[in-house]
Amino acid sequence: MDKPTYMVVAPKTLRPNADYRVSVSLYDIPAPIQVNVSVVGPDNNTATTGPVVFAESETQMLTLPIGDWTDGCYKLIITGTDANFSRYNPHSWQKYDDYDETLLPTTTEPEIVIDGFRDEVSLQFQPKIVSVFIQTDKAMYKPGQKVQFRALVVTPSLLPVSNASVDIHIKDGNGNRVKQWTGLTPIRGVVSQELELSSEPVLGDWAIVVEVLGVKHQKPFSVAEYVLPTFDVEVVLPKYKTRDRPDIVATVKALYTYGQPVKGSLTLTVLIKELYPSKYRTRYPIDGSVDIPINLIDDLSLPKYIRRLYNFNIELTAVVTEALTGRSYSRSNTMKICDRYIKVEQVETSQTFKPGLKYPVLIKVTDQDDKPVPENGPKLTLKYTFMYDKYNKTILLSPVNGLINVGLFPPKNTEYIILEAQYMDNKYKIGEIKRAQSPSNNYIQVVRLESNAGVSVGQQLRFAVNATEPIGRLVCEVLGKGDIVWAQSIDIPENKMTHEFGLEATPDMAPTARLVCHYLRAANQEVVADGLKFNVSGTLRTPVSVTTDVQTTKPGAPVEVRVSTKPDAYVGLLGVDQSVLLLKSGYDITREDVDKELKTYDNEYNRWDNSVTAGEIFDNSGVVVMSNNLIHRAPKEGKQYI
Question: From CA 360, how far away is CA 407, in angstroms rounded?
């Protein structure tokens, strides 16, 4: 009869006033048993599931409500009763030889058997449970002007927080606190305030500081004496150039905010920042627009060693002086100098391969602007070398929409794969792929079907799991924003070595999610695991559009603004003069700001695609694991397994 075992996967990070979800899997239980999961910490802080009944082989996702806890040392504890469990003994298995990683049992160590089980692991406490986005009516103010701002307080799911106390203060350019509000209550997640600047304030960079539930968020703005720009300057460049074709045309445009051309003089400065302080300056008259030819190599007098660099950046700064008033405004733009027109890169592929399974190679072939190469163009030569091979193997492939997808089957005795490519007489080093590690030399591989297509909230996703041996039961968890948002046990019919399954992308998985799959080998109680990272769009779930009844109007004339969104939605509007936009940006809330903030809840600790062992797959995904099974990790200090 197989041995009863348990496997617990839980987030490494614990947050107050939030649900903490734990995935618990039991294997080969002779009869239903009771399991209790608890989180305990200082000040008698305890959350528990109470007794939960598990059947013979079952996976359940258990939820523990965490209260208004403070920082401290917390532990996750699991107990089970009414069955005998044998704990894995790392000394009861040995390697057969140095070339075969298979572990064989020894008879020198007795089996460790316990009545029921108890296990615990330490958690990391993170007080942040809300996000704050701060918006001002502009990014720069004059003395005496009014600073208007609002703070949006939301959960990691972007739901409004209305039951939290909000404290706000404003610091001047010297760091002094000049105004504060305490105990504010958000209305549908929004707090709005304003500050009238004095006639002689401290000039410089000020900051709005918002504190909610012990976590501070800050937004800078500037106070300065300035004149609003009356015209805009734009430097139009190609996005890149190659060293063998260094001639470019830089187009400088100068237009008033109402669209008319600016007459005056132009000074253009060309500067390379990396390694060599080379500078080129030229002057031209301008009447709205002017084209300036430049040879980036000769005009900058670049030395030979700079010309041999793989790539570097060139910055062009245009200063336009208006003839009528003598006012000057400037704008800069940057372009990249490359050694070749075509990029060949490996994308969306793990940096480790699993012996006995296909290693998928996805190569992107584009120009430096990420435009796919033509499908009827030259073929790409892919060269790959397995360790101990005497010769390179070569494949001729044609890119389709700029992508090449090929599978390699490395032999079991190889330690790495070296990938190289050649396209249009240029050679490219793709990478060196390491071998994954497993004591039994068995592996699984998780892939997303239709992986080239984007993922949106509400979309049904399909995944395939391939294994080097038959699997009877597969357990999978999905992590999003540092929490387990989906867990399921999948019984695979007829113990097949491949299986497909699906799930729906939910808002909790946006903007980034991880799928972790694992199974248990009865022969040596080894947990075999793999993981997959995927991005999910649809972070902002409330659609909104803004239209006006006119596109052009006179000063003082009324403008009708129409906002379309969901019923009962809270709408905030911001109108900004175009001259203010030209002066300084950074006052608004962008989609990129939201995605960046939500990723701070993620518990990914290292490069996900560099995980070599099952232990690294779990560790790098930001979870803790408790089990009486073998979870292999890389050797440390001479020890082979820990």
Answer: 4
Query: Stretch 114-125: mean pLDDT, rounded?
Result: 90
Query: Which amino acid type is present at position 84?
Result: N
Token match 């809300």: residue?
A: 130
The pTM (predicted TM-score) of the whole model is 0.85
Is 475 found in the same domain as 329? no
Radius of gyration of the chain (CA): 31
Among 221-225, 370-374, 575-579, which stretch is predicted with the lowest mean pLDDT?
Answer: 575-579
Residue ending a domain, among 338, 369, 394, is 338
Alpha-carbon gap, residue 475 to 586, rounded angstroms: 45
- What does the pLDDT look like over 16-47, one tens digit per residue? 999 999 999 999 888 889 999 999 999 999 99
Q: What does each C-alpha distance from 550 to 258, 333, 553, 561 come to in angstroms? A: 16, 33, 7, 9
CA distance linking residue 410 with residue 359, whole number of Å? 8
Q: Is residue 449 part of a domain?
A: yes
pLDDT tens for 582-639 read: 788 889 999 999 999 999 998 765 555 678 999 999 999 999 999 999 999 887 644 4
Query: Which residues form the domain of 452?
Result: 5-127+441-536+605-627
- Whether residue 511 has a cis bond before it, omega within 30° of 0: yes
Q: Residue 468 has what DSSP assignment?
A: S
The mean of the pLDDT values for the chain is 88
Same domain, 522 and 475: yes
User: The domain spanning residue 168 has which CATH number?
Assistant: 2.60.40.1930
- Count of residues making up the chain: 642
Q: What is d(CA 134, CA 261) in angstroms, rounded to the nearest whole number? A: 36
Torsion from C-alpha of 464, 467, 470, 475, nearest 10 degrees: -60
Q: Are 221 and 136 in contact (CB under 8 A)?
A: yes
Closest CA to 74 of 25, 16, 24: 16
Q: Say if residue 524 is in the same domain as residue 613.
A: yes
What is the CB-side half-sphere exposure of residue 488 using CA atoms within 13 A? 10
Write down which residue in 286, 305, 338 finishes a domain: 338
By the 10 Å C-beta count (0-12 exposed, 13-18 middle, 19+ buried), 517 is classed as buried
Task: Check whether residue 44 and residue 118 sit in a common domain.
Answer: yes
Provide the CATH number for the domain around residue 251: 2.60.40.1940
Q: Specify whether 249 is located in the same domain as 312.
A: yes
